[in-house]
Write a structure and sequence with these properties.
The protein has 9 helices and 11 strands. By secondary structure, the protein is α/β, with parallel strands linked by helices.
Length: 275
C-alpha cells in the first residue's frame, strides 16, 4: 500500500507538507523546494546543527553529540588512515571535523549553510559550500544525518564517485521511517522533519540505492541515542504532558524491539566501492 502522509513542520513554520512513496523503501517530501527557499526553514536559533543553543533540548543535543563523537570515530576507524582525505558532508558546526583533526587526520567539511561554515572557519576548519568547490580525491565521505537533507542524492553519488581514485568508503547515518517509534508517532514523528528532510529511507531503501551504484554494505550499527531524542521531540510536538518521560519510554521500547527486528529508529551504514 502506498504511503502518503501529511506532515506538519512543528519545528518552525507550522506549514504542512506531503510525504509520499518515491520508490521501494524511500519516501519523498513534496513540494520539492529549491535551495534558496529552503534556507529559511533552517534559519532558527533552535536548529542545533548550525547554532550554539541553550535550553534543555539544546543540552540534550549537545550531550548526545559529545557521546556520539566517539561512536562515530569507532565506526570509521577501521576504514581510514592518516593519509585518507575524509569529507564530512553536512558538517554543521564542525564537531566531528574538529575531533578528527585533533587525531591528525586530513579533513574537509561541506555545508551549504553559511552560518555553519562561518562557525567552522572560527575553528580553523577547511569547509566548502558544495563538493564541486574542491577538486581533491575523496577517500572517505560521511553523511551524519545529512543524506536525508539532499534533494539530488543520485547527483551527489555521481560526484563523489567521479572524485575518487581508489576504494571509496561512504558512511551514511539515517533515521528509519519503518522503525517502531516512527509507526507509533505517525505524522508527529520528529524525524520526518519536513521540509528539511527531502527524502526518507528505510534500511532496504538506502541499501538498494547504494547497490545500484556498486556499493557493498560492510556494516550496519544502530544509533541508540537517536531513538530517545527523536521520541522526546515527537512527544513535544504532540504537546504531551511528561514529554521527556514518555519519550524515554518509547525510545527504550523502540531500541528493545530493534534487537529482534533490526529495525532501529536510526542506524549508520558503512558502504564500500572499489573504483
Amino acid at each position: 500500500m502506498k504511503q502518503d502522509l501529511k506532515i506538519k513542520d512543528h519545528f518552525l513554520s507550522n506549514e504542512v507538507f506531503n510525504v509520499v512513496e518515491h520508490s521501494e523503501g524511500v519516501l519523498k517530501t513534496h513540494p520539492d523546494l529549491d535551495e534558496k527557499t529552503l534556507d529559511k526553514y533552517y534559519d532558527s536559533s533552535q536548529y542545533s546543527s548550525h547554532y550554539n543553543i541553550g535550553g534543555f533540548i539544546g543540552f540534550l543535543y549537545s550531550l548526545s553529540a559529545y557521546i556520539m563523537l566517539r561512536f562515530k570515530f569507532r565506526v570509521l576507524a577501521k576504514h581510514i588512515n592518516k593519509e585518507s582525505l575524509i569529507v564530512d558532508f553536512g558538517c554543521g558546526k564542525g564537531g566531528f571535523l574538529s575531533y578528527l583533526k585533533k587525531k591528525k587526520y586530513t579533513v574537509v567539511g561541506v555545508d551549504s549553510n553559511k552560518k555553519a561554515r562561518d562557525m567552522c572557519l572560527k575553528k580553523n576548519l577547511n569547509t566548502y559550500k558544495s563538493i564541486n568547490d574542491f577538486k581533491e580525491n575523496i577517500d572517505t565521505i560521511t553523511f551524519w544525518h545529512s543524506f536525508e537533507h539532499i534533494s539530488n542524492p543520485n547527483e551527489i553519488l555521481d560526484q563523489i564517485i567521479n572524485q575518487s581514485k581508489n576504494n571509496l568508503t561512504v558512511v551514511i547515518a539515517l533515521p528509519n521511517y519503518k522503525s517502531f517509534d516512527a509507526k507509533h508517532y505517525g505524522a508527529f514523528w520528529a524525524a520526518y522533519d519536513a521540509p528539511r528532510h527531502r527524502f526518507h529511507y528505510s534500511a532496504t531503501g538506502i541499501k538498494k540505492l547504494m547497490k545500484s551504484y556498486g556499493f557493498e554494505c560492510l556494516k550496519t550499527k544502530p544509533m541508540l541515542l537517536d531513538a530517545f531524542y527523536i521520541s522526546i521531540m515527537s512527544e513535544k510536538y504532540k504537546k504531551s504532558k511528561l514529554s521527556f518521560v514518555k519519550g524515554i519510554m518509547v525510545g527504550l521500547i523502540s531500541n528493545l524491539l530493534g534487537l529482534f527486528t533490526s529495525s532501529y529508529s536510526s542506524s549508520v551504514f558503512v558502504f564500500k566501492k572499489t573504483i
